[in-house]
Amino acid sequence: MISSFLGLQTSLRGLLAQQQALDVAAHNVANANTVGYTRQEATLGAANPLHLSAGVTQNGAGAFLGQGVDVTAYRRVRDSFLDLQVRAQNMALGDATTSAEALDRVQTAIGEPSTTGVNALLGKFYTAWSDLANHPESDSSKQAVNAAAKTLADAIGGLAGEIQQAGTDAAAEFTNLTGATGPIKAAATSLAQLNKAIDTALQAGQSPNDLLDRRDQVLDDLSQYGQVSVTQMGNGAIQVMLGNQSVVSDTTVDWQVPPPAGFTPGGGQLGALQTLSNTTIPGYLTQLDAFAKTIHDDVDAAYGSSFFTGSTAATLGTGILTASAITAGSGASPASGSNDLATAVAALRDSSTATAQYGALVRQVGSDTDNASRAQSVAQAAVNAAEDRRQNVSGVSLDEEMASMLRFQRGYQASARVMSTIDDMLDTLINRAGRVGL
Amino acid sequence: MRVTAGMSQRHVLTDLRRVQERLANAQDQVSGGKRIDKPSDDPLGTERAMRLNAQLDSTTAYKTAVDESRNWLDATDTALGSLGDIVQRVRELTLHAANGSTTPAGRQSIKQEIDQLTEQAKTTLNGAFDGRQLFSGTATGTPPYSAATADAYQGDSAPVVRQIGPGVSVQVNITGDDALAGLLPTLRTISAHLASNDVASLGTSDLHALDAGADTVTAKRAQVGAITNRVDAAGQRLDDVFDVTTAFLSKTQDADLPQALTDLSAQQNALQSALRGGATLIQQSLMDFLR
After folding, report:
1. Alpha helices in B127-254, H assignment, sequence order
2. Which of A45, A110, A249, A293 could be a cystine partner for A72, CB 3.0 to 4.6 Å?
3. Residue A258, preceding bond cis, omega within 30 degrees?
4. Closest CA to A38 of A84, A80, A3, A89
């Protein structure tokens, strides 16, 4: 026989399950704006049926009698493949953003095209020489040549200093990010703690959804610095690599401060900083040095003796010939109107490759910056698209939660109605049955 | 696709940011008037603008040299012109002296005038220009002739050369020796013949020598005129190059204003519609329609 009260129990399960599902909807709505939150679902499943032994039905067979509903799991609606996409694009965005910012600084230092940049000053330097060729006997023309040379050398030296500084700053930023107080060390520490908490919860048979969200959020944040790869170690623990270095494995912080010499981040902000300080910026400085050396060599050759002493971008300004020592003409004691040397130096304007060299450097910096900022927009769009796909799966849709609320509210009301119907039935049975003749 | 509140909000913000960025770019072009503000705006264009700026600098420098040369040549021409006048006057005086009707006393006064004219020929060439000597070769600090009676040329024979274009140079000077080498001794001879009353020589060899000297001055003046023409032509060419280069530079780096203004108003409209769309999108949800 089946208990008369089975129906009460069944509708109670219905009430509880609908209530729990409503609680989950409440949790989702509350976290609609939480960064990194994954929407959850209460998975409802029919409760274990009551087994009725053979003979209870008319044809003599047994039966399974339904006993209502249970919440079988709280599901975290997430696709880990989309996480990989978001992190890969995050890495590209970190790389492009860092490069674009540093390169923009270099091109701002260059400041071309302008009437005050190195290109214009080089033109003024040559013009000072042609003025001297027109007035070889004039002391003020010699002063002007000396002053123009100094201004040019100072501008080239200043530019070298600013480009150098951009490289130094990139290296310092790399040290900060990877250092003891940097974000990677902090991420490693919190990942180790989260791994431990997740282990404990999983061993207790719980589903630590919100802890998993927090761990994924830390990994998302970490991915802007370099290539993050995650290895599952079983029991919910993970090992996290940044480039070729382990950050954390299970509850152990592996991240070394400072990272070993062979550390390659594989991209991201750290990769960009490494490339900038090791390759890009030194490359620009080499080109600038070659430009300074061309000026030094060409002017000295045309002048017939040493005019510039320094032959690198940083040293070009040292030991420029003083105004009183400059002669416009060649020979031991040239005639006052002799101007062959000044004419020869002024003619470098048309023959020297210095202008073209500097133009090539500016074009290089310009197109590098342009590429980096294009890459930044592309990566930003890709991050948005990947984030959209992830939100498509994991994001909280308020409309959807509203609909769920209605659904579960109605479910709850219906279960309550069933319960009161059974109550009525039992009232009939207990209070009104068997009273014939009373 | 499930569109969540966060998604639509982020889309609206991304679109707004993009439109605002374009608007700022359009505004920069309109207010700055430049298409290229920094190398990354157009790397190749920047390099070209720099090359064109260098070419403008170079053309300006050559134009300065042309003006300088022109001044030098003009001053030379004026001096040679005065010299020609002096020679002409000397010729008239010599003819007058060679005339039999002129008295020996008259020849003495003519001698005095010719001596004065000889000194005047020297001082004409000594006339300095811009603080330097034009007829002393490259020895621009030394006057070509001393004020004393000695007639030796004091300058050198080195050419004064000016660069008036890429690889184009001209000699702008005439030395005092070129102009007066033959003339000065002739004048001295005429003076001596006047003193000694040598009427026969005055009328024959002296006049011939004087004409030869006058021819030299005229030839030198013609030479200066030819060089002036060359310099003028070079200056004209430089002006043309300057104009073409300026136009090309403007095409390379200046903003196309009508285009930029059109862009600006198009972007302003885009921003307004993005804002309006965003406002309606963010407001609405199922909550607005549920009791």
Report:
1. 176-180, 183-195, 199-201, 207-253
2. A45
3. yes
4. A80
CB spacing of A384 vs B287 below 8 angstroms = no
Quote the tokens at residue B273. 């519609």
Residue A396 has its nearest CB partner, among B4, B36, B167, at B4
Dihedral angle computed from the Cα positions of residues A235, A239, A240 and A244, in that order, rounded to the nearest 10 degrees: -160
* Stretches in chain A below the pLDDT threshold 70: 1
Beta bridge mates, A42: A74
A:194-213 residues touching chain B, CB 8 A cutoff: none
Residues A375, A18 contacting (CB under 8 angstroms): no
ipTM of model: 0.84
The residue type at A419? M
* Interval A185-230: pLDDT, tens: 999 999 999 999 999 998 888 889 999 999 999 999 999 999 999 9
| Mean pLDDT score, B161-166 | 90
Peptide bond into B43 cis (omega under 30): no
Of A389, A375, A338, residue with least CA distance to A100: A375
Which residues neighbour B71 within 8 Å (Cβ) at sequence distance 6 or greater?
B129, B130
- Mean per-residue pLDDT, B41-60: 91
d(CA A70, CA A64): 16
User: Which member of A33, A134, A137 has the closest CB to residue B68?
Assistant: A134
Any idea what DSSP says for residue A58? T
**CATH no. of B47-250:** 1.20.1330.10
| All structural domains of chain B with their residue ranges | 47-250
- Asked whether the CA dihedral B130, B135, B138, B143 is positive or negative, the reply is negative
Q: Which of A28, A33, A119, A394 to mutate to test the interface with B (most CBs of B within 10 A)?
A: A119
- List chain A residues with CB under 8 Å of B65: 130, 133-134
Q: In which band, very low, low, confident or very high, does the pLDDT at B283 lie, cut at 50, 70 and 90?
A: low
Of B1, B141, B158, the CB nearest to A137: B141
| Interchain CB contact of A295 with B (< 8 Å) | no
The alpha-carbon gap from A271 to the nearest alpha carbon of chain B, in Å, equals 22
What's residue B128's pLDDT?
67
Compute φ and ψ for A260, nearest 5 degrees: -65, 165
The domain segmentation of chain A, as residue ranges, is 6-77+398-432, 84-177+272-386, 180-257
Nearest to B230 by CA among B79, B97, B86, B73: B73
**Which tokens in the block code for residue B144?**
């070509």
Question: B149 pLDDT band (50/70/90 cuts)?
Answer: low
Question: Do B111 and B195 meet the contact criterion of CB atoms below 8 Å apart?
Answer: yes
Give the chain B residue whose CA is nearest to the CA of A118.
B50
Other C-beta atoms closer than 10 Å to the C-beta of B212 total: 12
* Interchain pair B40, A123: CB under 8 A: no
Please name the residue of chain A whose CA is at the shortest distance from the CA of residue B59: A127
B31-49: per-residue pLDDT in tens? 888 888 889 889 999 999 9
Q: Which residues contact B84 (CB under 8 A, 6 or more apart)?
A: B214, B217, B218, B221
| Ordered DSSP codes for A254-317 | ---SSPPTT----SHHHHHHHHIIIIIHHHHHHHHHHHHHHHHHHHHHHHSS-S----STTTTT
Environment class of residue A36 by beta-carbon count within 10 Å: exposed (0-12), middle (13-18) or buried (19+)?
middle
Mean pLDDT of chain B: 88
